[in-house]
Structures are given as structure tokens and as C-alpha cells.
Amino acid sequence: MKTRLAIYGVDEYQGALMSRRAAARGISHIGAGRDIACVATHANATLSGKEHPVEPRVFGLGDVSRIASQLDDVAVLINCATPFGETAAPLIAAALATGTHYLDLGSSTPHLASVMARDADAVAAGVTLLSGVSFDFAAAEAVAARLATLLPMARALTLAAKRANLSRAEARELVAALRRPGEVAKNGQLVRAMPAARMVDVDFGKGPERAALAPWRGEAVACRRRLPYSSIETFEVLPAPLARLMRRGTLAHFLFRRGWRAASLERRLAHGREGTPDAELQRARAVVWGEARTPDGRVRRARLETPAAPVFSADAAFLIAQRLVEGAGMPGFRLPSEAAGAALVEGIEGVTWREIADAEETFAPDPVALADAP
């Protein structure tokens, strides 16, 4: 029985952070990536005396048989290499060929749908496939699942997320997502919606903050898989520079939609760094707010506060990976809450849950998605 853990993408910020946290916990693992210099440097940086908790492996994604040869002894593969829309397919193909459970941090609607489409292949191979094992999706899905338990007759769900600083990869994905249409769920159907077509004020714990409609997030597709909601909207607090650029009718918005100076904007959003330094991560927090509503007007609200998004993502991935190594996997495509259940709230250090009692006001009894023309 295979028991080894591999993290692919240690030559990028999130993968390197995840690998360092695993090494600090004494978890020996394979640290893999495409850049030989970065992978070797990362592995050497984790040396502790004579112990070497990270075994470096370098391989690209152009040859599935080559990838499979690197996964023969791997029980669980965590993919942190971006963009997930490109890196997932060859890694999943190799994982299915070698009987390796696969996790990744991708959370966009197209990505989740593409991994979900491999469900039958995963069942046949006896492999578990999970996407969205990150703050961007897993924390929001945990709120959705718990609200469904508190209010079983709820059919409408509104989620809103707030994080601290962005990594360069996250900034790149956010800038790209804001320039194209997405989807929200409306009465059981997916409806086209433009980013920031609607704004709401949400109290994340320190007073109201403006959040923009975020139809690129995958909750609308995935939450319908096993939760009772037929209408789902997700919002996100945008960094100030992006919030200004999303004001429709302005020249800045026109130029932004056409990709003007996207690279410089990504660097600005990430403060010129690949990711947040560890010292800042220890202080940073992220929050997901949720509101569930029944057709007759009953409302439940809650707020989930977590460590910084990259830290929560790493800990959620470890939690699920450990369960898979121990044999608790369910073949086929699974959502994070299916694999971890309440542990996504109760089993990760620094996560706090609060049910909000005052629910006098709601956004709307049945949220309507705005589908503006691009």
C-alpha cells in the first residue's frame, strides 16, 4: 500500500509554503515542480541537521507516461502548480494511471467542471479526485454546508469572502477573472453574470464593507452537487485598485477589460512580491460570510474566520491528504466537505465559527443575477 505524499508546484509560492509547513510538522514528502533550480533550492532550504524531509523531483507536464513514472510510489498528490486549467489534466491522467489520489487548489467554475467530468474514470480507477481544496472554495463550501444543516429548507444562498494580501499567482487569476463573464445559480439554472455587476455591503466583523459579485468562483456549480440550494451568488471584497477599475462607464474600466497594463497591475496587487512573507501570514486573517434563506423568508447567517488564505489552503489540503493516506478515500470526484466534513471548521487551528443572530434584513428573498453585456 502506497503511503507517500507529493506536493507538485514547490517552485511556486503556494506549493513552497505548503511544503515548508509540512516539513515543520515533520511530514516527509516529495517536493516536485518544473523548475530544477527552484525545486533544488527549496529542498535544500528545508534541511534540518542530517534530516531531509523533502525529496526533490523535477518533471514537466508534457508527457503523461513520464509523470506516471514519478507517481508510482505516491499515495496522494497535491497540485499547487498554476494555472490549474492547464496543469490539472496531465497530472490527473497520470494519477488515474497509477492509482494516486489527486487534490488541487483550483476553484474556478470551468476548472471544477473539468475535474468533475473525470468522475467515472476516477471511480473505475479507485481514485479520489478533489478540487477547490483552498480558502477560495473549501472555506466557502464549509459555510454553505453548515448553513444547510442549520436551515434545511433553505433554497437561496449568498456568500461573501474577504482575504488579506494576494500572491502574484492569485493576483494574476483575479485580474483575468474580472475581465470575463461567469455564472451564478438562479432557480436551479446557471445564469450568465458579469463580475461586479452587483455590489453588497457585508459585515465581516468590523463593520460593513463593499463586496463585488464574483461569478468566476465555483460555488454556484459545485454546491448544487450535494446541497439544497437552487439560487447561489458569491461576492468578494476586491483590493482598492481593482474596485476602482470595476466602475463601469469609465475609461479605466474600458482599458482594464481589454487587458491594458495587466502585468503591472498584478505586480501592484501583490506588492511586487511572489507571496506574503511568513511573518505577515501569522497575523493575517480571512473571512467568509454566508446567508441562507428559505422560500417563506426564514434566514440564517454565519461567519467563518480563518488564518490567512494560503495557510488555510495548506492546512485543509494536509487534513484531506492524511485521510486519503489512511484509506478514507471515496473513489470519484469529491468536494472538500465530502472528504473532510466538519473538520474543515473544527479540525484546523485558528478557524472560528460564529452564527449571527440578527437577521432582520436580507439582500432579496430570491437573489437575481445581473447579466450585463461584456
Descriptive notes:
It is a single chain. By secondary structure, this protein is of the alpha/beta class. The protein has 2 domains: 4-134 and 310-341, NAD(P)-binding Rossmann-like Domain (Rossmann fold, 3-Layer(aba) Sandwich); 135-309 and 349-356, Dihydrodipicolinate Reductase, domain 2 (2-Layer Sandwich). The protein is built from 16 helices and 16 strands. Strand 8 (182-186) and strand 9 (189-193) form a beta hairpin. Helix 1 packs across helix 14, helix 3 (64-70) packs across helix 4 and helix 4 runs parallel beside helix 5 (109-116). The longest helix has 17 residues, at 309-325. The protein is globular, with a radius of gyration of 20 Å. The relative contact order is 0.15. Mean pLDDT is 89; it is low at 359-374.
CATH superfamily (homologous) name of the largest domain? Dihydrodipicolinate Reductase, domain 2
What is the CATH topology descriptor of the largest domain? Answer: Dihydrodipicolinate Reductase, domain 2
Distance between the termini: 52 Å
Mean pLDDT: 89
- Main sheet properties: 7 strands, parallel
Q: What is the number of strand segments?
A: 16
Strands of the widest sheet, in order across it, are 3-2-1-4-5-6-15
Compute the CA-based radius of gyration: 20 Å
Oligomer: single chain
The structural class is alpha/beta
Q: Please give the domain count.
A: 2
Classify the beta-strand content into a percent band.
15-25%
